[in-house]
Design brief:
With 294 residues, the protein is an alpha+beta fold. The chain is 24% helix and 41% strand.
Length: 294
C-alpha cells in the first residue's frame, strides 16, 4: 500500500523553533539560566514530538484485502478492516477518516463532512504497542450502484496535541460494495421464446450438435463431404453419413436505450432510467432461471 504523508507541528512549536537559537544566544549573553533551560526544554519537546509522530505513523498498518460485498437495496452487511500498530510506541490519539458514495447508509458512524458525491466519516482509535484492532460497522444498501472506501487517511496526534501526522492512501482500497437494482416485474415475459442453434438437446430442433454424433444413415448427394461416416462406410462398403443430435440454444439479447431523443437536448438521459434498469434486471433473472444465455 502506498501512502502520502506529512507532519505538522502547532503554531507555538513552529514559531518557537524558529526563534530557539536566538533565545539561546540571548540566554548566554545575559547569563539567564531560566531562559536557557526553558529554551532547551522546548526544543526537546518540539523535536521529540516530531520524532514520536514519525515513528508512530511508520508503524501503522491497515488491512486491504480484495473482497466484494453484494447487496440488494435495503439489505445490511458489516464492512470491516483491521488496523495494527507494529511498533513499540503507543498511539494515544488516532483518527481514521474515509469517504463512501451515498449509495450506502452508515447509521452508527459520525459523518464529518459530505458533498454531492461523497460522504466522509471519522473513527477514533487508540493502539497500544504491537496491538491490532478490528474496525467494523454496519452498512445498509440505499440505492443501486457500486462503491469502495475512498480518500482513506489516518491522523496521529501527540499526547499534548502539539503536532499531528497525516497519511493518505494513494492506492485503491480493495474491498468493494456492489448494490444490485430492484427487480420490477415485466408482464408477458412468460411468452418469450427464442430458439437458435446451440447445445441443448431438443426433439424438434432444426439444428444439429456436431459434437454429439448419434449414428449413421444412407448417403445422399446433398450431404456435405465432411459429414461422411468413414468407419461405417468401410464396414458396410456403402457411403454413410453421420447423424447428429438435434439441438437448440436459448438466448436472449437485451438492448436498453436510455437516451431521450429531443430536438433541444438530443443527449439527455431518460428520467425513468432506474425503472428501466430494474425491469432489465428482472428479465436477466428470468433468463438465468430458464437456463437461457444472455
Amino acid at each position: 500500500m502506498r501512502w502520502e504523508s506529512h507532519t505538522t507541528l502547532s503554531l507555538f512549536l513552529t514559531s518557537f523553533l524558529g526563534l530557539s537559537w536566538i533565545l539561546l544566544i540571548v540566554a548566554f549573553y545575559f547569563q539567564s539560566t531560566e531562559l536557557f533551560l526553558i529554551t532547551i526544554a522546548s526544543m526537546v519537546l518540539a523535536y521529540g514530538t516530531r520524532l514520536y509522530l514519525k515513528k508512530a505513523a511508520s508503524s501503522v498498518q491497515i488491512e486491504n484485502k480484495r473482497r466484494t460485498i453484494k447487496l440488494f437495496k435495503g439489505e445490511q452487511e458489516t464492512l470491516s478492516f483491521s488496523i495494527q500498530n507494529r511498533g513499540r510506541l503507543p498511539i494515544w490519539n488516532g483518527e481514521l477518516r474515509f469517504a463512501l458514495e451515498p449509495v450506502l447508509d452508515l447509521s452508527h458512524l459520525e459523518m464529518v463532512h459530505n458533498t454531492k458525491n461523497l460522504h466522509y466519516y471519522s473513527v477514533p482509535f487508540f493502539l497500544r504497542k504491537e496491538e491490532q484492532k478490528n474496525i467494523s460497522f454496519s452498512i445498509q444498501a440505499h440505492q443501486r450502484g457500486a462503491t469502495r472506501i475512498r480518500k482513506l487517511q489516518y491522523t496521529i496526534k501527540d499526547l499534548f496535541g502539539l503536532g499531528s501526522h497525516v497519511s493518505s492512501l494513494t492506492d485503491f482500497f480493495q474491498t468493494e460494495v456492489v448494490i444490485y437494482p430492484e427487480l420490477k416485474e415485466v408482464k408477458g415475459v412468460e411468452q418469450l421464446s427464442t430458439f437458435e442453434m446451440g447445445n441443448f438437446a431438443y426433439e424438434h430442433s432444426l439444428y444439429e450438435n456436431l459434437s454429439a454424433p448419434a449414428g449413421a444413415r444412407e448417403y445422399v448427394s446433398t450431404d456435405p463431404f465432411n459429414h461422411i461416416h468413414w468407419k461405417a462406410t468401410a464396414r458396410t462398403s456403402e457411403l454413410k453419413t453421420k447423424v447428429y443430435e438435434r439441438s437448440i440454444e436459448m438466448r436472449w439479447v437485451f438492448i436498453l436505450d436510455l437516451s431521450v431523443k429531443r430536438k433541444n437536448s438530443p443527449g439527455q438521459v431518460s428520467n425513468n432510467m432506474e425503472a428501466y434498469i430494474s425491469q432489465l434486471a428482472f428479465l436477466c433473472t428470468v433468463a438465468t432461471k430458464r437456463g437461457n444465455r444472455i
